[in-house]
Design goal:
Layout: H1 12-15, H2 21-37, H3 53-57, H4 62-78, H5 86-97, H6 103-118, H7 122-132, H8 138-155, H9 163-166, H10 169-172, H11 178-195, H12 208-219, H13 232-240, H14 243-248, H15 252-258, H16 285-289, H17 294-309, H18 320-332, H19 336-353, H20 358-371, H21 377-390, H22 416-427, H23 440-447, H24 451-456, H25 460-466, H26 493-497, H27 502-517, H28 528-540, H29 544-561, H30 566-579, H31 585-598, H32 608-616, H33 620-634, H34 644-658, H35 663-680, H36 682-689, H37 694-706, H38 776-786, H39 789-800
Helix pairs in contact: 2-4, 4-6, 5-6, 5-7, 7-8, 8-11, 17-19, 18-19, 18-20, 19-21, 20-21, 27-29, 28-29, 28-30, 29-31, 30-31, 32-33, 32-34, 33-35, 34-35, 34-36, 35-36, 35-37, 35-39
């Protein structure tokens, strides 16, 4: 008897793994009390149990297992490091608990599952539950489906991703077990509540009877879905939201961050898996497109059509050759049937790529517009469909205005005396330039603009339309004449680049360098072959001197082309990131300069996949350099271009690097996080970072203080309506400008008593006092006086998101 009670003297953690089930029960009970007593979620006391929690939930004794699950639930709820146990504990729950015979065991297992989701480990939880759907035991499968149903119902589709689940719909709805089918049917109905008709393509292959049942259930659904439970990082927002707002719909930003609000109609495109088609094209595809017989050309286009019909969502890649070939069919093919087919296929490619088609969009629009001369109805219809599909991929352009220091390169060749005279005149200039006369189409706008607005600067839109506003500094690039270099390349340029002798390869690169030095602005053209050749030098050349030279030349091409380089930018960024494994200083320096020159031709969203892959690379040099590049890129990025989706993705990748064993990687990640904090404000970054140790937080703060944002932060769009000009006395009694449609502001009564004058009987009653309106410039000035620059930047970021 004494031996049996010997366990009572053991520490709690030893009782929890004792061979006697009664000892384990006692250990679990003590653990529950202990877990409830620990105040600090980061206390070292938790670490003793990190490796034991899986054993709690997989206890071989049913009674002990139940008590172990209770202890595990309290642990997950209170421990700050509980997320580290998610994978192993969830696999144990799926294997041993989720379909257990005891009802209480199943209930607590579900509570633990939901608690892991609440502490933001929803991706791992969903992955383990989907793995459970592949088990042979139908009870386990049904229980996993049911758990996903409950998770989706409580947290919503912005937390529980629907895309991984839709692949299981046809499999589980045709399962032999009725319980599995019923649970899956309930899950599909819940999916429909959240994403609406986007679920339709995924039930189209089911039996007609099942489709009918599901659609009847859809129509009798319980209205718009709303989450009833939130992630830890969202809960403070929900608590601070008044009940009326929760009922009537919060702001768009609140919805995006909490998953609340209108569940809406999800885009079916988002549920599709991208398909790679470029490698599946027939080997003689491009040869057949150039064939003399129209039948052979049609055969090639038909092969492409079959691929595109089976791929409504395309895998991003280098579609330059394919798009160029289809453009040629549209522009030059003499067979109108093939022109129509080419237009239709180009539209399908644009639809399949969406925003990834943007590098090719403008050139395609030009070709289609020129081909609208064709009168055949089928051709015109196909071209209309193509241009309509391409339009959403076109990015708008912003053009600079007046010129400032951009004149400098054009006076550099003058005599020194004349240069000196001119610069003295520049420095004593009469301030910012403003037009004094306007086009007829602008004059009504100028008449309607109050005088104060004309002096202080109208709205951004007004400036763009009238030519008024800040003259700014013009980019010297805009005053240069573009130079055509492609035809000036040596005839054997590409052959020499493939030569075995490094001296011949260098000779080819030197010839290109001489051309680029004489051409700071390049004539737009087809640079695909040249860029591909330079990429090959960077990626595969064994001579590090040539790798560095290739990187430098690629940067010069990007600088010379500016936005016209965008079709090649993403592929070049990927090649450079991979080459950062090189340790030679001259190579790394050249690659840094190249990627910095390329970045203005692209954006953080376009290169996100390549950047995150670089963060996950095993090579610490690649991790460090990619983080440093991100830090530099953020200094040249508008806060509005670094939205919440990008913040979440990039910060998540950087947090992993912050735990690296390599100090250079940790410092680079901290610098990128610090720059991001400076760009969009701490309140927009902190929720994604969570709690870090003091040393890391201090390092991030230091980098945030050092970071210098190079772009001028764009202000929110101003109200274009004319506003009364405040008088010098501040009493709001200024007269409105001529042409203004605003009523005269009412004079505020003075605090001192003034004998009242009797108003004439015919005069209308005075309006009640009203608060003086402030112009946008006054608001900006007050904000800058009250808040630091990074806070103002964060406010603009929040307004624009």
């Amino acid at each position: 008897m004494e031996d049996e009670n010997e366990y009572k003297k053991l520490p709690t953690e030893e009782k929890c793994v004792h061979k006697l089930w009664k000892a384990r029960v006692a250990g679990y009970e003590e653990a529950i009390k202990l877990f409830n007593q620990i105040d600090d979620e980061k206390s070292p006391e938790w670490n003793k149990y990190l490796g034991l929690i899986k054993k709690f939930v997989t206890d071989s004794n049913a009674v002990a297992q139940e008590k172990g699950l209770e202890a595990a639930l309290v642990f997950v709820e209170n421990c700050g490091h509980a997320g580290k146990t998610t994978g192993e504990v969830m696999s144990g729950i799926v294997a041993k608990c989720i379909a257990a015979p005891r009802t209480k065991t199943k209930d607590i297992a579900l509570q633990i599952t939901l608690m892991y989701i609440e502490i933001e480990k929803h991706e791992i939880v969903e992955e383990e539950l989907i793995k459970g759907m592949e088990q042979k035991n139908p009870k386990v499968v049904a229980a996993c489906v049911s758990a996903l149903h409950t998770s989706l119902k409580q947290f919503g589709n912005k937390v529980i991703a629907i895309k991984p689940m839709v692949k299981k719909i046809p499999i589980l709805l045709s399962d032999r077990d009725k319980g599995v089918r019923d649970e899956m049917k309930a899950l599909v109905i819940e999916m429909h509540r959240w994403i609406g008709g986007a679920i339709e393509p995924h039930i189209a292959s089911l039996q007609a009877v099942i489709q009918q049942e599901l659609r009847e259930s859809f129509s009798s659904g319980g209205g718009a879905a709303q989450p009833t439970r939130y992630l830890r990082s969202q809960q403070h927002r929900v608590r601070d939201t008044p009940a009326a707002d929760c009922a009537d719909g919060a702001t768009e930003d609140d919805d995006a961050e909490t998953g609340a609000g209108d569940s809406g109609e999800m885009d079916p495109y988002d549920l599709l898996d991208p398909v790679e088609i470029l490698s599946k094209l027939p080997k003689d595809f491009y040869e057949k497109l150039d064939a003399k017989k129209w039948q052979e050309r049609k055969e090639a286009l038909d092969a492409l059509e079959n691929l595109l019909k089976a791929a409504p969502k395309l895998e991003p890649g280098d579609y330059a050759d394919l798009v160029r070939a289809l453009k040629k069919v549209i522009s030059k093919d003499t067979n109108v049937m093939l022109v129509a087919l080419g237009g239709r296929l180009l539209g399908m490619v644009a639809t399949g790529l969406r925003n990834k088609f943007s590098p090719y969009a403008c050139a395609c629009v030009q070709a289609i517009l020129e081909k609208f001369k064709e009168k055949k109805t089928n051709v015109v219809t196909a071209l209309r469909e193509a241009i309509d599909a391409i339009y959403p991929c076109i990015k708008t352009l912003v053009y600079p205005r007046w010129i400032g220091g951009a004149i400098e390169p054009h006076i550099a060749s003058l005599q020194a005396v004349i240069q000196q005279e001119l610069r003295e005149s520049f420095s004593s200039g009469g301030g910012a330039a403003q037009p004094t006369r306007y086009l007829r189409s602008q004059q009504h706008r100028v008449r309607d603009t109050p005088a104060a607005d004309c002096a202080d600067g109208a709205t951004e839109d007004d400036d763009a339309e009238t030519g008024a506003g800040d003259s700014g500094e013009m980019d010297p690039y805009d005053l240069l004449d573009p130079v055509e270099i492609l035809s000036k390349l040596p005839k054997d340029f590409y052959e020499k680049l493939d030569a075995k002798k490094w001296q011949e390869r260098k000779e080819a690169l030197d010839a290109l360098e001489n051309l680029l030095k004489a051409a700071p602005k390049l004539e737009p053209g087809d640079y695909a072959d040249l860029v591909r050749a330079l990429k090959k030098v960077i990626s595969k050349d064994t001579n590090v001197m040539l790798v560095a030279l290739g990187g430098r030349l690629l940067g010069m091409v990007a600088t010379g082309l500016r936005n016209k380089f965008s079709p090649y930018a993403c592929a070049c960024v990927q090649a450079i990131l991979e080459k950062f494994k090189e340790k030679k200083t001259n190579v790394v320096t050249a690659l840094r300069e190249a990627i910095d020159a390329i970045y203005p031709c692209t954006n953080l969203e376009a290169i996100m996949e390549d950047m995150l892959a670089a963060f996950d690379n095993k090579n610490p040099s690649i991790k460090a350099e990619s983080s440093l590049f991100l830090a530099r890129a953020l200094c040249h990025t508008q806060p509005t271009a670094f939205g919440k989706k990008l913040v979440k993705a990039y910060v998540g990748g950087l947090l992993k690097l912050l735990e690296s064993a390599d100090p250079a990687v940790r410092d680079a990640a901290a610098e990128a996080l610090g720059t991001a904090t400076k760009l969009v404000g701490e309140k927009n970054i902190a929720p994604h970072i969570g709690k870090l140790d003091n040393l890391k937080e201090q390092k991030i703060k230091e980098f945030a203080d050092k970071a210098v944002i190079q772009v001028k932060v764009a202000a929110p769009k101003k109200d274009t309506k004319a506003k009364p000009t405040p008088s010098p006395s501040g009493k709001g009694d200024a007269k409105p400008t001529a042409g203004s449609s605003n009523p005269k502001p009412v004079r505020r009564p003075n605090s001192a008593k003034v004998p009242a004058k009797k108003a004439p009987a015919s005069r209308a009653q005075p309006s009640p006092p009203r608060e003086q309106e402030l112009s946008q410039e006054e608001v900006d000035a007050k904000a800058e006086m009250l808040f630091p620059a990074d806070v103002v930047s964060g406010m603009l970021y929040t307004l624009s998101s």
